[in-house]
Specification:
There is one protein chain. This protein is mainly alpha-helical and 542 residues long. Among the domains are: 125 residues, no CATH class; 185 residues, no CATH class. It is 48% helix and 4% strand. The strands form four sheets. The protein has a three-stranded mixed sheet with strand order 7-6-8. Strand 3 and strand 4 form a beta hairpin. The chain is globular, with a radius of gyration of 24 Å. The N terminus is likely disordered.
């Protein structure tokens, strides 16, 4: 068995009864495979589910971990080229689906965006940052925060690139932007947490802040003296003028604050240290803080499985972050395995944990992957989806309006859900505009398909819409033999909803399909899937 397979079984044997751990070494079956692929990939096809169903969880994770990284940067031509088609290609066609899905989740935590004066026309640089996330997705969290802290893309986005040491004579102060967000958003959060993600309380029942402003001020001085790798100039001229957004930033010691610093939890950084030495102490301190496991673990659960994971679920994942079973802290692959194989992920409605609104982009990637969608040249860059994501759906890769992502993990939609104390992150971008435009776009792409004879269709109810060489078509050949009423609906249920379709919805869809002519079979398929993907039942991942 692959080392990762041994690892997940070892972790589970500690966290769950032996029978649960033993189950990881047996074939998962079609329903469990569908759930795993629904949560841990950008979508599944019938073939994907069939292949995974014969594997154990351990074997599937080991295989995903062994696949090479699908990178964006080699696909983006020119510094101002468009990286969005590369992202969509990797999301829809990349074999390393788990890695790509985790990278997307990380990109919504460790946010950078082209909504920045330096990065707005730097598609290749943004692609290199996303590749950093994909490369580190199965590595150690300590490595991830180190790489991000050396990234010139992050340095420019959160303004610690060329962050100069304080100088009272000239009024220069260390920029606090990255120091604050590194703690608030990327590592420990605002409040002291228990291992299950709940807030620690003082004697008056109030939350306890994780850090104070003084901690931000001194941590900001750690991030002084970092700038571009010299490309044209040397010495101080390189500090002032050079801008290399692809290679890790390097230290310019003359611009680093070497005075003593006191950071979170009173950790002292002695005076006279180098930029690298100070940074190591700071990142080691944050990495080992007890908040990191529940703070990051809960957000990864939210991005992959559920908006409101139970304290027990968070605690189980936190335990794996703290120790992967081999004495290693921060093993991200082990954390992701724990998230996706937990009973709360694999059992619908487990302790009320289940449920999250599907992000719009995931509804499209799921549709395209289920039907092997592509245009005449094999590309998946459908104009109305790939290029117009922000306008239509309020999200697209690395285009967040702020460092707080498209939506916040603690967002609560006013009304019954907020009254129940439930977080509804993805609902923050669901409004009258995005709901209608997402629905319209999903319907449009559902009715763009090519059948098993090669005939092209575009438009509902016989109404033709304009197409061109870059129109992305669904391919219905694999589905046409299943186009008889219940068989079609049950397979759509498996692929898109992991078998969780409500009985009333199933009956309604079967009755509808029965009223359609049996031929052409492709039309039955398109009609059924267009209804399913626009249903409120499908909009919620359960």
């Amino acid at each position: 068995m692959h080392a990762r397979g041994v690892l997940i079984v070892a972790c589970l044997s500690v966290l769950f009864p032996l029978s649960r751990a033993a189950a990881q070494a047996t074939a998962m079956g079609s329903t469990a495979a569908a759930r795993l692929l629904m949560q841990g990939t950008f979508g599944a096809s019938l073939a994907d589910i069939q292949a995974a169903s014969t594997q154990s969880f351990a074997a599937w994770f080991a295989n995903q971990a062994s696949l090479p990284v699908s990178l964006e940067l080699p696909q983006v031509t020119g510094s101002n080229g468009d990286r969005k088609p590369a992202w969509w290609k990797n999301a829809v066609t990349g074999p390393d689906q788990l890695r790509q899905r985790v990278a997307f989740a990380l990109s919504e935590i460790f946010v950078v965006s082209n909504n920045n004066s330096v990065l707005v026309d730097r598609s290749q640089s943004l692609a290199s940052y996303y590749d950093l996330l994909a490369t580190d997705a199965f590595g150690n969290f300590r490595t991830l925060i180190d790489d991000i802290s050396h990234s010139p893309v992050m340095g420019n986005y959160l303004s610690f690139f060329r962050n100069d040491k304080p100088n009272p004579a000239t009024g220069v102060r260390a920029d606090e932007n990255y120091a604050r967000e590194l703690m608030q958003l990327f590592t420990v959060g605002l409040w002291q947490l228990n291992a299950d993600g709940s807030r620690q309380l003082d004697s008056s029942g109030n939350g306890i802040p994780t850090y104070a402003q003084a901690d931000v001020t001194d941590l900001a001085r750690v991030f002084t003296g970092w700038a571009s790798k010299p490309t044209i100039h040397t010495g101080d001229q390189a500090w002032i003028y050079d801008l290399d957004l692809f290679h890790p930033m390097v230290a310019y010691e003359d611009h680093h604050d070497t005075n003593a610093k006191v950071i979170i939890d009173g950790v002292q950084i002695p005076g006279g240290g180098s930029s690298a030495a100070d940074l190591k102490i700071a990142l080691d301190t944050l990495f080992n803080h007890p908040n990191v496991a529940p703070f990051i673990g809960r957000q990864l659960i939210q991005r992959l499985v559920s908006s409101n994971p139970s304290p027990d679920y968070v605690a189980r994942v936190s335990a794996v972050f703290a120790n992967n079973g081999q004495g290693v802290r921060g093993d991200l692959l082990a954390v992701v395995e724990a998230i996706l194989t937990d009973p709360a992920a694999q059992t619908a409605g487990y302790n009320g944990d289940q449920g999250k609104l599907r992000e719009p982009v995931l509804r499209f990637t799921g549709l395209w992957r289920a039907f092997g969608a592509h245009d005449a040249a094999g590309n998946v860059a459908e104009q109305q989806v790939v290029q117009q994501g922000i306008a239509r759906f309020a999200e697209n890769s690395l285009q967040s309006p702020t460092v707080f992502n498209f939506f916040r993990p603690d967002y609560e939609r006013a009304g019954a859900l907020a009254s129940a104390g439930l977080a509804t992150p993805e609902f923050q971008i669901a409004n009258e505009n995005t709901v209608i435009l997402t629905s319209n776009s999903l319907q449009n792409v559902a009715y763009q398909y090519v059948d098993s004879t090669g005939k092209l269709y575009a438009g509902a109810d016989g109404y033709s819409v304009p197409t061109n060489a870059s129109t992305v078509y669904l391919h219905t050949a694999a589905w046409e033999p299943l186009a008889a009423d219940a068989e079609l609906v049950d397979n759509l249920n498996l692929v898109f909803m992991a078998g969780q379709m409500p009985a009333a919805m199933r009956t309604t869809l079967i009755n509808y399909v029965n009223q359609l002519p049996a031929s052409p079979a492709a039309t039955r398929v398109a009609e059924a899937v267009s209804l399913l993907i626009n249903s409120p039942q499908y909009a919620i991942q359960r």
